[in-house]
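Morning!

As promised:
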Amino acid sequence: MRLEGKVAIVTGAGRGLGKGIAKKLAEEGAKVVIADMGSTQEAVDEIKAVGGEASAFSVNVSEEEEMIALVRYAVDTYGTLDIMVNNAGINRDGMLHKMTKENWDLVIAVDLTGCFYGTREAMKYMREKNYGRIINISSGSWLGNLGQANYAAAKAGVVGLTKTAAREGARKGVTCNAICPGFIETDMTLKLKEVKDGAAWDSMMSRIPMGYAGKPSDVGNMVAFLASDEAAYITAEVINVGGGMIV
Ligand code: NAI
């Protein structure tokens, strides 16, 4: 129970990676706000079923006022905010020469601007109390990936944002780190099983040195560590959780 008494927000926690992260934080004793624009009930119920504390907040991370309201909700409901996990993200893949401006704007708005709002609002609050942990979910794709110009640009932006927030928050007791998941089994990636009768999925597996996709809990374990007191001197880092896939 490394996070006993702590209060966390996890965006995009209704399913997938975010849900895995929220469950791990709750398991370690944190009270968690499940923030998502989609369904949140399942995640809340799963946490409560094992004795954890969670509540739901409906939010579109690309809407500034809604993100301001999200941080206010956590503080009003649980009295404080210690851990902010900016996880919500989408992809709209396509080769650059065919990429529409609409798909560019959408991915930047959710994956980068949403992360900016979450990081800024958390930072405002955490600076005042001289304590905080901000954890941003980037992606191994930030280094560049075929068909992901919009996503790679957003996720590289998340790294720059994270490193700057880390420097600005350091004297105020606020750490900020980014995690780059490799290939984790969620709705976002399971779509690949339908491409070329599963050949696309198999090809992806062959690129992972460990030979299999990660689980949301693999990322949750890293988030819990970075959120804990054990990670007090770790900030501005970009940490891969990818079974050796990102080198
Ligand atoms: P997912 O598609 O399974 O779940 C994403 C969640 O975010 C959903 O619950 C969805 O409702 C929510 N969401 C989407 N747009 C939102 C918005 N505008 N406002 C609020 N909530 C919103 O995706 P997954 O795989 O769980 O991904 C989570 C994060 O991890 C994303 O940032 C993604 O880019 C990143 N990631 C995932 C990898 C993977 O292998 N699954 C690899 C690298 C990074």
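The chain has one domain: 7-241.

Hope this helps with the figure draft.
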